[in-house]
Amino acid sequence: MKKTLLFFTLLFSIFSFSQDINMEPGVFMRCGPDMFYDSGSQFGGYGNDENIVTTICPLNSDQFTILNFNFFFTEGGPDPDVMNIYDGDDTTAPLLGTYSGPVGAFSVSATGANTSGCLTVEFISNSTQSVDGWEAEILCATACQDIDASFDSSSPEPNGAGVIGILPGDTVDFSGSALFQSDDTGATYSWDFGDGDTATGTDVSHTFLTSGTYTVTFTATDSNPQGCFDSDTVTVFVLGPNLVVDQDMFTVEELIEDVLVDSPCASVSNIIYSTGSTINPSLPSGIGYFFSDGVNFEFEDGLVLTSGDASRAGGPNGATLSDGSWAGDPDIDLLLDPGDTSNDATYIQFNFIPRGNEITFDFLMASEEYDMGGYECSYSDAFAFLLTDSAGNETNLAVIPGTTTPILVTNIHPDNGESCGGANVRYFDSYTPDFGAPISFDGRTVPFTAHANVTPNEEYTIKLVIADARDSSYDSGVFIKAGSFNLGGNLGDDITIAAGNAQCEGSEVILDTDIELANHVWYKDGVVIPGETTAILTVTEPGVYYAEFDIESVCSGSSDPIVIEFRDNPTANEAPNMVVCSETGVEEFDLTQNDDDILGVQSATDYAVTYHLTEQDAIDNVGALVSPYTNVTSPQVIWARLADVTQTCSDVTSFSISAALAPTINAVSNLELCDDDSNDGIGEFMLSDQTA
Question: b/e map of 510-519 (b: 16 or more CB within 10 Å)?
Answer without folding.
Answer: ebbbbbbebe
